[in-house]
Design goal:
The structure is a single chain. The chain is α+β, with helices and mostly antiparallel strands and about 300 residues long. It has two domains: about 5-100, Phosphorylase Kinase, domain 1; about 105-270, ATP-grasp fold, B domain (D-amino Acid Aminotransferase, Chain A, domain 1, 2-Layer Sandwich), CATH 3.30.470.20. The chain has six helices and 18 strands. It has helices at about 55-70, 120-125, 165-175, 175-200, 250-260, 275-295; strands at about 5, 15-20, 25-30, 35-40, 40-45, 50-55, 80, 95-100, 105, 110-115, 130, 135, 145-150, 155, 165, 200-215, 220, 230-235. Strands 9, 10, 13, 14, 15, 16, 17 and 18 form an eight-stranded antiparallel β-sheet that branches. A five-stranded antiparallel β-sheet has the order 2-3-4-8-7. It starts with a strand and ends in a 6-residue tail after the last helix.
């Protein structure tokens, strides 16, 4: 069992139709048929949406995504139409709302890994592979891979696990041409972002993207991109393979949940609320990632 500890009621806005409440984002459709995506301050971990909010988190995710879309626009188009607030939207939506193209989404989490950790490490330790790709002996937690790899996963509903799958399985599900486009775009975007992050003292260990096709059949980069929610960011000056790495992402929350909180993630009990100090430290990590990557101060 997992999902929302407390599922929120969607905000009702005249002219907008509520479509979906996700782990972090609420999705609406406007009268023009475009999507309105609102990034909340919700935090998810271990397939649970926690009862605690992280102040400013939704704004950080949105503004960082917009910054990355600009860095990547020569590589691949993105889904953003406008960041203007819809008429009648609550003031709290400012800075966390995007009006986006409606796409035919590809039902695959497009994951790129440049370093070995997380579920990739677990598979490697068992079989010396990740998503069926053979890797050399001698790698450990945090090791840089010989080259970035495309390790897709099937998208899951809230409360379900995404499942790592082979490239061949993706090709069977979405077709060989689409699978090839996904792999090429994922590795190109990851490589560009890895180099940009490295210049700023950050290792982009891995990240996941979502893609869709527009009405003309063009592959479009969608959802959020290269945020602490969708990526593992490590401080480069503290990188040391063979151990868990310090990070700018929500690993901080995961570590508290599975450590001092006393919560058993294998049970059916929902996770506890985060203490104020964990909320504050998590907010600080998200803002630090934004400031280091963009080179600009966070305007609270």
């Amino acid at each position: 069992m997992s999902g929302f500890v407390e599922k929120p009621e969607p905000v009702q806005v005249p002219g907008l139709v509520h479509l979906h409440t996700g782990k972090v984002r609420d999705l609406y459709r406007d009268e023009a048929g475009d999507l309105v995506m609102v990034a909340t301050d919700r935090m998810s971990a271990y397939d649970w949406v926690l009862p605690s909010l992280i102040p400013d988190k939704g704004r950080v995710l949105t503004q960082l995504s917009l910054w990355w879309f600009e860095q990547l626009q020569d590589l691949i188009p993105n889904h953003v139409i406008s960041e203007d607030l819809p008429a009648g939207a609550p003031a709290d939506w400012a800075g966390r709302t995007l009006i986006c193209k409606s796409l035919d989404m590809v039902p695959v989490e497009a994951v790129a890994r440049g370093y070995l950790t997380g579920s990739g490490l677990l598979e490697y330790n068992a079989s010396r592979t990740v998503c069926g790709l053979a890797l050399p002996e001698g790698l450990e937690d945090g090791s840089e891979l010989p080259a970035p790899i495309f390790t897709p996963a099937t998208k899951a509903e809230v409360g379900e696990h995404d499942e790592n799958v082979s490239y061949e399985e993706v090709a069977r599900q979405v077709g060989a041409d689409t699978a090839a486009q996904l792999r090429q775009a994922t590795l190109a975007v990851y490589s560009r972002a890895r180099d940009i992050a490295r210049e700023r003292g950050i290792i982009l260990a891995d990240t996941k993207f979502e893609f869709g096709f527009d009405k003309d059949g063009t592959l479009i980069l969608a959802d959020e991109v290269l945020t602490p929610d969708s990526s593992r960011f490590w401080p480069a000056d503290q990188w040391q393979p063979g151990r868990a790495q310090p990070s700018y992402d929500k690993q901080f929350v995961r570590d508290w949940l599975t450590g001092s909180s006393g919560w058993d993630r294998t049970s059916e009990q929902p996770p506890p609320a985060l203490p104020d100090e964990v909320v504050a430290a998590t907010r600080a990590k998200y803002i630090e990632a934004y400031e280091l990557l963009t080179g600009t101060g966070w305007d609270a």
